Amino acid sequence: MSDIVFISDFGTSDWYVAAMKGVAHGFAPDAGMIDLTHDIAPGNIPQADFILGQAAPCFPRGTVFCVVIDPQVGSDRRILVASNGAQRFVAPDNGVLSTVAHEAGDRWVCHQALNKAYFRPMQSRTFHGRDVFAPVAAWLIRGTELALFGPAIHDAIMRPSAHPLRMGVSGWQGMALHIDRFGNIITCFRKRDEPFASKDSAEATLRIKDKTITGVKNTYADVEAGEFLLYWGSSEYLEIGINRGSAGDVLGVRAGEPVAITFA
Questions:
Q1: Left (φ > 0), alpha (ψ -120 to 50) or beta: where does 43 sit?
Q2: What CATH number belongs to 165-263?
Q3: pTM of the entire structure?
Q4: Sequence-distant (≥ 6) Cβ neighbours of residue 34 within 8 angstroms
Q5: How many Cβ atoms are within 10 Å of 82's Cβ, its own excluded?
Q6: Tens digits of per-residue pLDDT, 15-74?
Q7: Same fold, 3-148 and 165-263
Q8: How many CB atoms lie within 10 A of CB 29?
Q9: Domain 3-148 grouped into CATH 3.40.50.10790
C-alpha cells in the first residue's frame, strides 16, 4: 500500500497532527504516513499551494495527499477529492490545489466529497482534518473511486498562474512566490518559460525593491560572502539569494512583492 502525505498549518506542539494520523491509520492500517510540513503559516493558502506543487512531483504514483489548510472549516465550503492521473488529493475548495491542478492539465479530475459513509461517524465543525479529511484520505489510499465520494465538479476555486507579464520591448514583470527558511526569494520566473526560454540569462537584470542584480550564476560560491546573486533553484525557478545570508531578511521581502527583469 502507498503513503498518505499530510500537509497542514497545525504545527506540531498540539495533538492535531497525531489525531489525524491515528484516524487515518484506523481506516488504512497498512498505509505509510509521511509529513510534508505542518509549518504552513495559519491559513496561508498561497504558501501551501506553492509548497505542495513543488513536493508532489517527487512522490510516486499512488500517493495520497491530505491537505488541511482550511480557514473556512465548518462553513459551506466544499471538500474536494481529486486526481492528477497518478496521485490523489483531498483538500478544501479554496485554491490550495491550484498548482498541482495547473500542472496536471487535462488529466485533472475533481469530485466533491459528500458521502458521509467515508467520514468519521461524528464530525466536529472545527476539526474536519481529523473527522473528514483523514478518513477520506484513508479510503482513497485503499483505492476507492472518486465518483463514490460525490459528484464531479468543474468549478473548483483555482488561483491564477503567476506567469510573468511583458512590459515594453525588453522588460518583464513578475513576483516573489515564496521565501524559504534560508531567506532565498523564489520568483515566478521559470527556466522553461518566457522570457528565459528565448533569452540569455547572463544578460538579465533583476530589480526588487531598491536592489538590482545582474546575471544568473551557477551557485552561491560564484559570489563573495554577503553578496547577492541570481541562480536557478532546484525546481528551476529563478531565485534571489545571498551567499551565507538571508535575502528575504535583508530586503524585507514577502511573497507577492513585484519583481522586474530586463535584458541587455
A1: left
A2: 2.40.30.90
A3: 0.94
A4: 3, 4, 5, 6
A5: 25
A6: 999 999 999 999 999 999 999 999 999 999 999 999 999 999 999 999 999 999 999 999
A7: no
A8: 9
A9: yes
